[in-house]
Q: What sequence folds into this?
């Protein structure tokens, strides 16, 4: 809930300053990785000296890259998701929730490789009503899209996307949503829509997938997660607040 | 090359509600039935982890694997049809129980008007829509179908209460209605103030512990909010897996084969000899000879198998001749959203069929003299359980990402209610199913091609019903009400409804229908095609109740056919197609 998050009201600028994020590709991937990981996993805590999760002393080994091969690409993705689902008075944004890791992990698996989608050709550009029509799989769409974000940023602002002010980043992302950039193999709108929906999915899915850290997004939205029965409450007039519960609760061992 | 198997009396293609009903009814009578299901086996014990919106509602865990088979789509015949590469507009099921596993459980009877829509409309309003709308009667009256509706309701343990404007009932529902929540109460109160006739929506989510006439037990619904797109971990939602399939299996006369993907109906002229299928694990082909072939898969696949097997005459939109693929209908989804500034509702709780409805604007329940359309919609409020990924309703004009989006979507998560109509869909000569000339499935067979767009009838109906939904929400006290608008063309991307119908439609004339009122093919006496593919148009309700009734009717027809071995219904016109 919002009032629990006074310690997380860190502006993006401050976040960047604390984490060294502002340096973009200038800092070595290993070091930057640690810093970003720290900021993501600490639920807003500004200590950058350890990699803990949710107050426990156990390192969260899930927070490493399964799909992306370049830290820079991951940083651009992270910055973009944060603009789509930013930290605000309600609570944490995409980065703190772990959404970039969620997307990274999803791109490595069935989602990223369109395992359940029809990907046979021939491929033609469709009408606005015919849906996804690209030979690129989702992981390739993200590759192409992230590179294009950076290119557009250099072109418009002569700076890396991760170094831009929030409003400038929004301008770039808006161009993708509006279809006003050139992308190879996929429409910019298709890429943006994937980015947007994956960000929301990562924020609000069960924490088992690596996003929705500490169920903080469910708390913001007052969604109680996976509860087995509301039989005794469904007829009650007043709004009932409940602590969220994750799927982990249904594992018996 | 294909392995020849021993002949069986009956083979069904697909084991969901219709395959399960046919299997149960026939096996109880001692008939040996083989059920071929391309997906895998599953049961209640598979659903312990089912409260997972991402896995089931977003990534469609229970749905069809489109990498193997999908359909192609275009808005009109001048366009190039392209594959539906991802699921969206409708969610095709897969696996034992089919879409009956992940349905919400809203279980209706179509209206008497639906079954005789052509003659009743003509009588009252003349040829109001014109000849491009291929309306026709279904070849059966409501009175004839009524006992079968009740049979399905008993099997599925439907709970409900009297619908003053609905189809008449000879028996009360087997179970009481679902609980009346603050949301359903609010809707009913508003509806009454507007002189409408509200009632609790009929439900296949159990309202009590229940044992059906076949001895299958189901348990009381817990209102956990995970029905649509999910299986039920309690066995509290009627599905084929907890009702008809175990009934069939208990007889010892039913053999289920999963992982069996049927690719062709084998036939010698106008008589089916069996089916060919592929074992999806080994790739091995089998031929299963049978006396009677029953197509019990989804609308799309029933139609495709007939076209691919060259059984029945394909529909030609140029001439209007032929029937297979004809009268494909969808549904029109009018409605309105109400934003409540000062109130929050427990919308995260619910059940798939928890809701309240009015039928005052459905069928011919109101006078259409002064409107430019026929039929209408059932209008409902539902409390199915709002989950956070899929529910981010914001006032119009709000961006769909960024800070404003985030705060508005959080603010209104529990502060919006929607009233929506399931709009009936009238058949049009340009909306149909055919085989795609370019795209193939994993087995090298052509994909089904859907040619579909909204009609003027659809747009008028949408506008009218959306306005009615908005009136109810205003009366419910919403501070701000936004009626829905219909898109320029039908769009296959956003989810709308899985209520597809038609393609193998029923009627009393072989020139305009593919099956008779037992769902027996006019052109092949020993083939029955069961499901919503038989609907000559789509009504203003969820189709499963009517699908179930027609399946029981078909089961009776199949038993009758075993004795008579002939066409069971005298065609209205003596115009049997070659």
A:
């Amino acid at each position: 809930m919002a009032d629990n998050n006074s310690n997380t009201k860190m502006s993006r600028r401050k976040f960047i300053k604390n984490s060294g994020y502002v340096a973009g590709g200038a800092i070595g991937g290993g070091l930057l990785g640690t810093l970003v990981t720290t900021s993501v996993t600490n639920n807003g805590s500004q200590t950058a000296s350890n990699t803990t999760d949710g107050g426990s002393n156990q390192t969260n080994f899930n927070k490493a890259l399964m799909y992306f091969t370049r830290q820079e690409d991951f940083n651009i993705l992270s910055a973009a998701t944060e603009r789509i689902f930013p930290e605000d008075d309600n609570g944490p944004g995409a980065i703190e929730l772990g959404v970039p890791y969620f997307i990274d992990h999803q791109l490595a698996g069935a989602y990223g490789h369109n395992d359940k989608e029809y990907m046979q050709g021939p491929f033609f550009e469709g009408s606005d009503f015919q849906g996804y029509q690209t030979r690129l799989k989702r992981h390739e769409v993200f590759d192409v899209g992230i590179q294009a974000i950076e290119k557009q940023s250099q072109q418009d602002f002569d700076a890396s996307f991760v170094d831009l002010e929030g409003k400038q980043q929004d301008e770039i992302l808006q161009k993708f949503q509006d279809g006003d950039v050139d992308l190879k193999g996929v429409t910019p709108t298709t890429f943006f829509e994937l980015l947007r929906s994956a960000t929301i999915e990562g924020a609000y899915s069960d924490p088992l997938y690596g996003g929705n850290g500490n169920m903080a997004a469910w708390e913001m939205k007052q969604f109680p997660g996976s509860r087995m029965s509301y039989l005794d409450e469904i007829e009650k007039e007043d709004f009932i607040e409940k602590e969220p519960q994750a799927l982990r609760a249904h594992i018996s061992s | 090359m294909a392995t020849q198997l021993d002949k069986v009396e009956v083979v069904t293609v697909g084991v969901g509600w219709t395959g399960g009903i046919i299997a149960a009814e026939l096996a109880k009578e001692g008939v040996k039935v083989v059920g071929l299901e391309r997906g895998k086996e599953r049961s209640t014990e598979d659903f312990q982890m089912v409260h997972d919106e991402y896995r089931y509602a977003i990534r469609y865990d229970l749905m069809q694997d489109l990498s193997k088979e999908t359909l192609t789509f275009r808005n009109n015949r001048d366009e190039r049809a392209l594959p539906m590469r991802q699921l969206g507009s409708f969610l095709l099921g897969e696996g034992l129980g089919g879409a009956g596993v992940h349905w919400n459980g809203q279980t209706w009877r179509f209206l008497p008007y639906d079954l005789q829509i052509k003659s009743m409309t003509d009588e009252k309003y003349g040829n109001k829509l014109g000849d491009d709308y291929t309306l026709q009667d279904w070849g059966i009256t409501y009175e004839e179908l009524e006992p079968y509706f009740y049979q399905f309701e008993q099997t599925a343990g439907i709970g409900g209460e009297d619908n003053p404007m609905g189809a008449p009932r000879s028996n009360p529902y087997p179970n009481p209605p679902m609980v009346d929540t603050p949301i359903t109460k609010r809707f009913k109160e508003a509806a009454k103030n507007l002189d409408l006739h509200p009632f609790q929506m009929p439900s296949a989510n159990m309202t009590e512990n229940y044992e059906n006439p076949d001895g299958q037990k189901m348990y009381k619904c817990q209102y956990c909010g995970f029905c649509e797109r999910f299986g039920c971990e309690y066995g509290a939602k009627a599905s084929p897996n907890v009702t008809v399939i175990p009934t069939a299996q208990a007889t010892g006369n039913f053999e289920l084969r999963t992982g069996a993907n049927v690719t062709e109906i084998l036939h010698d002229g106008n008589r089916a000899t069996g089916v060919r299928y592929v074992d999806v694990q080994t790739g091995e082909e089998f031929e299963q000879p049978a006396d009677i072939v029953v197509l019990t898969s989804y609308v799309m696949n029933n139609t495709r198998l007939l076209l691919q097997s060259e059984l029945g005459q394909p529909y030609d939109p140029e001439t209007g001749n032929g029937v297979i693929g004809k009268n494909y209908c969808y549904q029109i989804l009018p409605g309105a959203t109400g934003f409540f500034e000062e109130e929050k509702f427990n919308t995260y709780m619910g059940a798939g069929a928890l809701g309240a409805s009015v039928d005052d604007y459905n069928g011919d329940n109101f006078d259409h003299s002064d409107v430019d359309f026929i039929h209408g919609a059932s209008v409902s409020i539902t409390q199915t359980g709002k989950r956070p990924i899929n529910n981010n309703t914001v006032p119009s004009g709000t961006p769909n990402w960024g800070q404003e989006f985030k705060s508005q979507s959080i603010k209104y998560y529990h502060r919006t209610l929607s009233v929506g109509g399931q709009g009936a869909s009238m058949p049009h000569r340009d909306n149909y199913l055919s085989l795609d000339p370019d795209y193939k499935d994993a087995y090298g067979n052509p994909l089904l091609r859907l040619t579909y767009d909204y009609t003027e009838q659809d747009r008028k109906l949408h506008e009218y019903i959306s306005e009615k939904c908005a009136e109810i929400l205003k009366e419910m006290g919403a501070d701000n009400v936004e009626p829905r608008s219909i898109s320029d063309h039908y769009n296959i991307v956003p989810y709308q409804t899985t209520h597809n119908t038609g393609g193998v439609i029923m009627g009393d004339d072989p020139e305009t229908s593919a099956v008779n009122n037992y769902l027996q093919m006019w052109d092949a006496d020993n083939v029955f095609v069961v499901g919503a593919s038989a609907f000559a148009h789509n009504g203003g309700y969820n189709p499963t109740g009517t699908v179930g009734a027609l399946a029981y009717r078909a089961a009776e027809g199949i038993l009758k056919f075993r004795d008579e071995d002939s066409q069971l219904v005298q065609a209205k016109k003596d115009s049997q197609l070659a």
Observations:
- Chain A touches chain B through 62 residues (CB under 8 Å).
- Residues 177 and 193 of chain A are 7 Å apart (CA to CA).
